[in-house]
Design brief:
Elements: H1 6-11, H2 15-35, E1 50-56, E2 63-73, E3 76-81, H3 91-98, E4 101-106, E5 109-117, H4 120-133, H5 137-143, E6 149-155
Antiparallel strand pairs: 1-2, 1-4, 2-3, 3-6, 4-5, 5-6
């Protein structure tokens, strides 16, 4: 996988374009990723590992999909609930806590997984890898006072 594209980093950290990414691309990305079997996102070929997470909404009971950067670790996938540094946690975080059985699509495959929120010690251990893999994360951290959660997705 190529290093992070500076244009993508800018688009996902600039205050003006962050709104566009959150409201428009977030709806289009899962569809494009699914239709191209993970080869493309709404902004072109992925420049970092990505996945589409489909979880059951805790209130609606409906399938909800979101496209996220991820890190692979020992056959599991780690995802970060940064919400691009917004004040509140992303809705998908609460959906995973209520219904941890999820569907995951990565390049070339789909599978069922169990989501587990990492404890503080496990989060601290992998956090340097998060910074290396997702350059935007330092900017997202600076925007919020909340603890940014990390989930492990373990295939079942």
């Amino acid at each position: 996988m190529a290093s992070a594209n500076p244009t993508i980093v800018w688009l996902t950290t600039n205050p003006v374009t962050t709104w566009l990414v959150r409201t428009i691309f977030s709806r289009v990305d899962p569809v494009v990723f699914r239709k191209t079997n993970g080869r493309f996102t709404a902004m072109g070929p992925p420049t970092m590992p990505m996945l589409t997470l489909t979880a059951v909404g805790r209130h609606s009971g409906k399938a909800r999909s979101v496209h996220l950067a991820c890190l692979e670790q020992d056959g599991d996938f780690l995802i970060v609930a940064s919400a691009m540094g917004q004040e509140r946690h992303p809705a998908w975080r609460y959906n995973l806590e209520a219904n941890p059985e999820v569907e995951v699509q990565v390049v070339g495959r789909r599978f069922t997984a169990h989501a587990q929120l990492l404890d503080d010690a496990s989060r601290a251990e992998i956090w340097p890898r998060v910074h290396d893999a997702i350059p935007q994360m330092k900017i997202y951290e600076s925007r919020t006072d909340r603890n940014i959660c990390v989930f492990r997705l373990r295939p079942v």
